[in-house]
């Protein structure tokens, strides 16, 4: 009896993990991808670090098929949520509550160690029957990756476990930086193909070349650890932080510790009256200047005095990106929400500094 197509083809839904350090350009790439015709039948799961998420307001087009995994990082606290969300999506599509989807993209937090996420995706029985892991895409910010690889172990892991590397922001990088970064990436992960995306523009066709079961996913845990240890020693990259309590390496752990990013804090400041633009810019510049290393990421939806529509602002370390306007308030009511992701920082200090700058109690001294 001849083998039928159904015996050989894998009809499970491919799941791609989109990772990359804070502010590297994951949402920008996702936004570009979901607008492409070949991605019309795609569901998206977004996980953000900390209790406050803004990204789901910034991903356009897909509505019902965008799921937000809140309160925590998918590699630490919300793995159960990830599987539940995938199960829920599947059941909702079966019940025709949402349109059927043929691919899933999971955008992890910028601090996620993809190791435990991949573990969950491969080992959950429900997942394994309906979905197949289709590789990890790691977004790399050319301007900041060298510093991130030196300081943050999460960044090293994200690059090392990638099946595909997408290099962003080469349009604003200094001359000579791109080849240096390419060289570094080649040494950490020589197997992953590299693609350049400017402001997210990269054909989603690269995903077809990525999966199924990309290069990284076929490597054994031991192989990856050995290779990573070699790269860390040779290139002087950031090594794992010493956890407060002894734990298994997240690469092989079934249930990784919730405190993996314990020196990093995400907090949101909310203002319900409009901020004068110049005051906002001064205040933010002050925070950026005071904490150039500790401020890992800043993003905000702003109610600015001079603007009729909400404004979106992004920052990575001391770099600030051009503002964008949103057509309407995501929650219906005008308010500013500023999200800071910082390392070893007193959030009250930042809050007081900004309060004083945005809404000073006393008018400033004016020179004649
Ligand atoms: N000039 C330039 N800016 C870019 C590029 N890619 C992304 N950006 C900008 O970088 C900023 C951060 O991009 P996001 O897509 O929000 O980054 P992210 O990785 O989703 O951030 P987190 O979710 O906080 O980790 C935004 O202002 C983007 O417009 C690029 O290739 N060139």
From TrEMBL:
<dbReference type="GO" id="GO:0016787">
    <property type="term" value="F:hydrolase activity"/>
</dbReference>
<feature type="domain" description="CobW C-terminal">
    <location>
        <begin position="264"/>
        <end position="358"/>
    </location>
</feature>
<comment type="function">
    <text>Zinc chaperone that directly transfers zinc cofactor to target proteins, thereby activating them. Zinc is transferred from the CXCC motif in the GTPase domain to the zinc binding site in target proteins in a process requiring GTP hydrolysis.</text>
</comment>
<dbReference type="Pfam" id="PF02492">
    <property type="entry name" value="cobW"/>
</dbReference>
<comment type="similarity">
    <text>Belongs to the SIMIBI class G3E GTPase family. ZNG1 subfamily.</text>
</comment>
<keyword id="KW-0143">Chaperone</keyword>
<dbReference type="GO" id="GO:0005737">
    <property type="term" value="C:cytoplasm"/>
</dbReference>
<dbReference type="InterPro" id="IPR051316">
    <property type="entry name" value="Zinc-reg_GTPase_activator"/>
</dbReference>
<dbReference type="InterPro" id="IPR027417">
    <property type="entry name" value="P-loop_NTPase"/>
</dbReference>
<keyword id="KW-0547">Nucleotide-binding</keyword>
<dbReference type="Pfam" id="PF07683">
    <property type="entry name" value="CobW_C"/>
</dbReference>
<dbReference type="InterPro" id="IPR011629">
    <property type="entry name" value="CobW-like_C"/>
</dbReference>
<keyword id="KW-0378">Hydrolase</keyword>
<protein>
    <submittedName>
        <fullName>Cobalamin synthesis protein P47K</fullName>
    </submittedName>
</protein>
<dbReference type="InterPro" id="IPR036627">
    <property type="entry name" value="CobW-likC_sf"/>
</dbReference>
<dbReference type="GO" id="GO:0000166">
    <property type="term" value="F:nucleotide binding"/>
</dbReference>
<dbReference type="InterPro" id="IPR003495">
    <property type="entry name" value="CobW/HypB/UreG_nucleotide-bd"/>
</dbReference>
